[in-house]
């Protein structure tokens, strides 16, 4: 046989085999399939607690995508959601959603959920004439220079929504004066109303800065905790009068909160928690801030009342004899073993009209000379 013909035949056979192998290779890859690729996104990267979020995800190769998430670094599973459908996130924190599929590279989406700041709710308040709202929060320019006890404990703003159960309220306040800039018998006062039913029934916590009196060497003179029931002013439970926590009292003097002035940024925090054994609402008051010397100071104490037990109520802000900005007002639910109610708006809280304001302001405070 011709050797050249044999060689040509072998070469041709080899080429056919190579061609057949090359033709089969893509088919084999197609049969095995490429690695899935996950696509995931959110319509927002930051929302306010209570708002809606939409997550959308998919994967190539018809791969099944699984989703897990963490809240502030801890695994969580309370949320129910599907791709492309809006859902609500009620709790503030940092959420990291992780999307996985077999053979695919995981994809993460991070969402920041911030607490709702009530002072930025334009429709959430009915404001007296001296109150305004701006980008910083709510401002009360209630300057009563020369007018003793004008609008005392009555010129307040109250939320339209009412709240129930156990909850915590915190607000940052800052005035423009120091305690020495007030007038004799005309304190500077800044406070928070943790429960408000109407002009005759509410609980109020306020900071008192006395000017040019015995305590003029102090900044924050006292923290007052009072309640009104049917228009009568009470201090401790069932006792008509005042309930003063003076900052020079040995119980509190070590806190050095007397060094705070109205123009310092001060945080007032009040927790309202029902105590089943006493059948009373326990109000835990916490006041803190950084004084002009750069020192952080704080003080706390409790006061229990029956007047608000089992009742919904609005939340209010109060100031007197200074221009005060109220910012960063947050309300959060508190769950306890005794009561695990959530904090949800239930009904409008009625803001007193001018006649009611006048009636509420008739109770005068007698200064300590």
List keywords for this structure.
Immunoglobulin-like; 7-stranded antiparallel beta sheet; disordered C terminus; 24 strands; Jelly Rolls; about 375 residues
Summarize the structure in short.
By secondary structure, this protein is mainly beta. It has 2 helices and 24 strands. It has 2 domains: 38-114, Immunoglobulin-like; 118-360, Exo-inulinase, domain 1 (Jelly Rolls), CATH 2.60.120.
List the helices and strands and how they pair.
Blueprint (H helix, E strand, L loop, with lengths): L2 H30 L5 E5 L3 E3 L3 E2 L1 E5 L6 E6 L2 E3 L10 E2 L4 E8 L6 E8 L10 E2 L4 E4 L2 E6 L13 E4 L7 E8 L13 E11 L2 E9 L12 E8 L2 E3 L9 E3 L19 E10 L4 E11 L5 E10 L8 E7 L1 E12 L20 H7 L9
Parallel strand pairs: 2-9
Antiparallel strand pairs: 1-4, 3-7, 5-6, 5-8, 8-9, 10-13, 11-12, 12-24, 13-23, 14-20, 14-24, 15-16, 15-23, 16-17, 17-18, 17-19, 20-21, 21-22
Indicate how many domains the architecture comprises.
2
Strand content: 35-45%
Q: What is the CATH-assigned architecture of the largest domain?
A: Sandwich
Residue windows where pLDDT falls under 50 for at least 5 positions:
18-24, 27-31, 338-369
Query: Helix share of residues?
Result: 10-25%
CATH class of the largest domain: Mainly Beta
The CATH homologous superfamily of the largest domain is named Exo-inulinase, domain 1
């Amino acid at each position: 046989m011709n050797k050249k013909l044999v060689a040509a035949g072998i070469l041709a056979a080899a080429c056919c085999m190579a061609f057949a192998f090359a033709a089969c290779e893509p088919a084999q890859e197609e049969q095995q399939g490429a690695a899935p690729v996950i696509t995931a996104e959110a319509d927002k990267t930051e929302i306010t607690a209570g708002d809606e979020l939409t997550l959308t995800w998919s994967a190539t190769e018809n791969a099944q995508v699984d989703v897990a998430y963490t809240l502030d670094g801890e695994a969580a599973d309370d949320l129910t959601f599907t791709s492309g459908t809006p859902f609500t996130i009620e709790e503030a924190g940092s959420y990291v959603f992780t999307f996985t599929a077999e053979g695919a590279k995981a994809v993460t989406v991070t969402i920041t959920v911030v607490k709702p700041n009530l002072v930025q709710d334009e429709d959430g308040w009915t404001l007296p004439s001296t109150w305004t709202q701006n980008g910083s929060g709510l401002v009360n320019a209630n300057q009563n220079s020369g007018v003793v006890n004008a609008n005392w404990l009555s010129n307040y703003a109250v939320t339209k929504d009412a709240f129930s159960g156990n909850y915590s309220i915190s607000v940052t306040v800052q005035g423009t004066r120091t305690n020495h800039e007030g007038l004799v018998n005309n304190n500077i006062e800044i406070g928070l109303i943790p429960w408000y039913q109407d002009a005759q029934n509410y609980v109020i916590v306020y900071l008192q800065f006395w000017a040019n009196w015995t305590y003029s060497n102090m900044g924050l003179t006292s923290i007052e905790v009072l309640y009104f029931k049917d228009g009568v002013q009470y201090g401790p439970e069932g006792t008509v009068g005042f309930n003063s926590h003076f900052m020079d009292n040995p119980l509190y003097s070590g806190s050095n909160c007397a060094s705070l002035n109205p123009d310092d940024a001060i945080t007032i925090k009040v927790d309202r928690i029902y105590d089943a054994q006493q059948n009373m609402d326990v109000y835990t008051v916490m006041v803190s801030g950084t004084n002009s010397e750069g020192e952080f100071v704080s003080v706390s104490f409790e006061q229990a009342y029956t007047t608000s037990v089992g009742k919904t109520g609005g939340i209010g802000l109060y100031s007197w004899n200074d221009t005060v900005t109220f910012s960063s007002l947050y309300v959060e639910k508190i769950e306890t073993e005794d009561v695990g109610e959530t904090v949800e708006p239930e009904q409008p809280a009625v803001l007193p009209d001018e006649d009611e304001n006048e009636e509420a302001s008739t109770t005068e405070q007698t200064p300590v000379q």
